[in-house]
Amino acid sequence: MYQIRPILFFIILVLVCSNTAVSQTDSVKFDYDKAVRVAQDLARSRQFDDARMVCNRILRDKPDNIDARLILSNVFSWQGYYDEAREELLKIFDYKNTDKSAFLALIKLNIDEGKPESGIVIAETALEFHPDDPDIILAYSRACLLSGKFLEAKKALMVLLEADPYNADAREMYYSMRNAIPLSNEGRIVPGITGPFDIAKMDDVFQTGVNFAANGQYDEARKQCQEILFYRPDYKPARVLIAQTYAWENNFNDARTELEKLQVELTGYRDGILGWIDVEKWSENYISAIRFCNLGLNFYPHDEDILIKKAEVYEASGNLYEAKRTLFSYLSGHPDNIRFTQAYNRLMTLAGKREIEAKRKPILLDSIAAPIPLDTLVAEANRLAQDGDFTKAREICRDVLRIQPGMYSATLLLGNILGWEQNYAEAIAVLEPLLKVSFDSKDVINSLIDIEMWAQNYDNAETWVAYGLKIYPGDPDLTFKKAVLYQRSGELTKASETFGALLAANPGNKEYLRAFYSVKGPLHINGVSAEYTHSQYKLPVVQNWNMFSMKYYKSTKAASMIGTVNAGFIGNDTAKFMQDAGLQFEFDVYPIFPKQKRYFHLNLGLSPSAIFARQRFGANIYNELGAGWEFSGGINYMRFRNEADTSSVFMFNAGISKYYKALMASFNLILSPINQKLSQGYQLTVRKYFLTPEDWIQVSVGTGLFPDNPLYYLNDPNYNPSQMLSSLNLIVAARYRLSERWIGRIYVGYSREEYRQSFFRTSPILNLALIYLFKD
Fold first, then answer.
1. pTM value?
2. d(CA 402, CA 411)
3. What one-character DSSP code corresponds to residue 361?
4. From start to end of 510-645, where are the E strands?
5. 266: which residues sit within 8 A by CB, 6+ positions away?
6. Does any domain span residue 586?
7. Domain boundary among 198, 223, 245
8. Which of 198, 215, 237 is the last residue of a domain?
9. Which helix (H) or strand (E) holds 445?
10. pLDDT score at 633
11. CATH number, position 727
């Protein structure tokens, strides 16, 4: 229905126009404003002929009707009849020579016709009549922009925005121009607005240049960049790309000429610095490349790209040490950085294999008739060293180093040989320079730690351990050495925790298991021992107690086991040594659960003789509580039987221990029910460790009743088990690692016992042990 109404109105107009004369009355009745709206609707609906006829009807009566003439001009312009359109617009000036709408329409007409330069002339004329009009200034800017007059367009917009900062059209055009440039017909790549110049986003033009460069079309890439720089000489990425294309063509001088225009020393332009680094590295001017790396790091101290490039420059120059150190210095603070980790690991595969010295041609020794690879000589020296022939091995290493000074494998082996020969100072002097070539060599670090420990320079060894763990956090070998050093310094709590963590991660490792047990004593060993125990009572009758023991130690992944055979002898006045004798067989098991920080002690004993408990069984648990504290508790049962009667003894014990540096203190409570009574015994032990857990001295004090002495149950007329008798004992003990295979131990003590109510006797106590360790 909307389309019918204008057509009907048009028919009416035709009928009216067909009259030979139209009266003044008819003209007055004609609604020109409505006719203008109808013409406008027809033009918008692209019914150009009908719209033009309506406009002509209006203009016949009202030739000064500007709206009708503007619509007619637009219709001609949209149909491509630019001259006719221009003619209609110029007629407006016959009636109103400063009409703003006509000026704007003329500017737009010339732009649409592809003559933005003419649009500029018209806009300048319009501005003489309307100097501050924002619409004309905006049209002028658009005509300048499409004519390639970028600066004039921007200046006009700036004038407009200074007067009206919130003009939306001006703001949009200005900010679009900031990221755009006009392209001449010759340089037109990115499509834009029709005209002698295309308008394109700089980023699009630059990306086109990047694509050309990536495809090896360097001339085309430079052409795009030069289009940008003609209008925007401050667009630095284009300058960098031009330099890179020259460098890729090995034209380093032109590349440097372009980069010099960036003045990176003053501006600190990051991409320019990266470009300089690449150009100098590709031209093998490594010193200059490092200079620009350092310049970049002055502006951007932790920039990953610059640090990576610095490492690449060092690697390209053959300086692997500095390359790895550059990467490692960043990884120390950012250990999870995948990019640096991958780069560092790639360089690590070259450590010890690619050496600067290896570039030199080896000169054969006069004594060698045929060429022998140096690696073969080093392997032979290593074999001799393993066989104990250190002298020959050392001589071969020195010969190899005369041929190729600084050879990694030969220097490392020589340092180790000197350490094995106990020439510690010389060994360290040989090994330390290797870290200047390969600062992260784990072999060198481990060797230095071992040698410092052998020399008992534990502070120096701790320094090297810390150095190694900084490079290899959590490394098992270095962590193990750290725990051993804790032992050496008496930090047994830390040693136990560290060994426990290693064992939890690798339960089957025998070395870790042995070390963990070693903190608590000789639990995890393979060997045999011989022991002798003596005590003597002078009242009321002389009793001599002598016991010889043989023990066999065996360790497995699950537990440590000890098998024992005890031979006991009792004497008195008439038969001092052999009045009675007997055997006892014992079996002890120490299961360990490192993840739970817990271990157990299970004991089983059998004897056919009255001088020992006929049967005995014990179960005890030891649990670490943290912070150096340990709790223990358990039960022991013994059954004694002689010619007269049988006695069963239960002993319940609980203890608490504290480790502090080189000291250990423990307190134990022993409770035993006797004839509906509860006897009590207390024991306090203080131990001081020395260089290893095998070397210590301790003092123990006990008081109360300890009903596990088999002599109490040998028909002693003076002993009544139902009595609650007390005792006091003092024992001093020492343990010492005699050598790698031998351990010695001694207990010397004194006991004061109440053998009858208010009657006491004294007894010396002596225990000697010698342990021999097997090879694992």
1. 0.43
2. 11
3. P
4. 527-537, 543-555, 559-571, 580-593, 598-606, 615-626, 629-641
5. none
6. yes
7. 198
8. 198
9. helix 442-454
10. 94
11. 2.40.160.60
